Amino acid sequence: MNIGIVGLGLIGGSLGLDLRSLGHKILGFSRREQTCQMAIERGVVDDASCTPHILAAAEVVFICTPIAAIAPTTQSVVPYLSRDAIVTDAGSVKKAVVEAVAPLWHNFVGGHPMAGKAESGLEVAERHLFVGKPYVLTPVDTTPVDAVKTVEEIVRSLGANVFECRPEDHDRAVAWISHLPVIVSGGLIAACMSEGDRTALELAQQLASSGFRDTSRVGGGNPELGVMMAKYNREALLRSLHQYRLCLDEFISQIKAENWDSLEQQLTRNQQARPKFIKE
Amino acid sequence: MNIGIVGLGLIGGSLGLDLRSLGHKILGFSRREQTCQMAIERGVVDDASCTPHILAAAEVVFICTPIAAIAPTTQSVVPYLSRDAIVTDAGSVKKAVVEAVAPLWHNFVGGHPMAGKAESGLEVAERHLFVGKPYVLTPVDTTPVDAVKTVEEIVRSLGANVFECRPEDHDRAVAWISHLPVIVSGGLIAACMSEGDRTALELAQQLASSGFRDTSRVGGGNPELGVMMAKYNREALLRSLHQYRLCLDEFISQIKAENWDSLEQQLTRNQQARPKFIKE
Predict the structure, then answer these.
(1) What is the ipTM of this complex?
(2) A226·B169 Cβ contact <8 A
(3) How many whole angstroms separate alpha carbon B39 and alpha carbon B231?
(4) Which end of chain A, N or C, is less surrounded by CB atoms within 10 Å?
């Protein structure tokens, strides 16, 4: 199959490496000539170009740009696609993306490969990045069934675990497990830094160990990514934040009132609930 | 030196293993005969007993019981100690402990070895548990200087990094980096479980990965320990929770108002501040 990849970063590059090794012909499109050259040299693509004509032969096109660029990029490349080409994306939010992109191309399937690394860029692209990772597809009423089937087969061949759901359900789920944690964790760092007692702050910095390290990890991550997720998944994130605040207030009330039985019951429910999310 | 250890769990047992290998004579005291037997068999102590008379020969005594038992246990053993014996404890909060224990014995030095494991009990005691870990000593105005010096020398011989501060400073610092994270992280689990949309909740449970795992880890831990830290460090924890809530509300306001510049500035400050706590 001829597969086009638009945006040759970590995700686009890793898709290219895997799909090429599965026997597909990979056609890369990037704005930067240097990236096209590197993609060819690293064997990520069979051919790459800075002009979208290269996508004319593609049967399936993966749009792997940052979220904000997905809709404008799709708009700029669709005039060059063959009539039956299927377009899919790799954005980490789906409602806003699907609403913007579906009207631009009849054969569009929203997608979210949930594989990432701390670093980004083609330099860190690698084979088998998607193995055992969730890959969510979010077809809507107007999405052609055959297009979903084709994308699903490709994704399955990467070794990913395919999930299919509505864009809204995806966004609510990732608000809970991916976007809310960034704010919760970021609040922890911000609160610590607000400590006005210099002795206590310096001591805290010296004594911090694994508990603080783990709880603060995602809150200390890439600021641009944090803003993107808040911007494009604002509604679901605010919904989760509202619930989080209620839970936090409940904890504060229990501690203020010295209601230790209630606190222990809640902490016990948490202990029991966590394994439903995490299999360690 | 003759060193007494009261409470033969993870901390008491690990202290015994290390101090014994350094040439000290270790005298164990536990309420349970079975624990005394096991401590002797495992080489944690030279001798152990269920009666406090065994502590009469001790020059330094480590009280390694759970927090709630530190003061009553100290009260019950001091009548058996030699007049010059130094008592120190291993409780994870210090103001409440020092206020309760200092009046019971003139030669008392508050201490907190910040080494732990997910499991507890003598079965998981191990050598070198304290190497490279912080060990905080919290003398007060009435604490004899020589007692602090002696405890500090012993602690240093374990390979721990010794810190010395007031009990209140210790409690504020651990509220930030140890106790606040438990509530922040617990709130995340509680909020997720409050999701009324079954599809989104089940999807969230299936899609959760490293970000959720790390942010929720300490919130899904031992409920009794969580209650203990809230109970005995209530004042400092409420102070930290108050600040945390302000920071959370600021994030919520920024997202509601779509004030992306402010959000990015805050996330950037977080990214810059985290390495001051964590050297990864």
Answers:
(1) 0.93
(2) no
(3) 31
(4) C
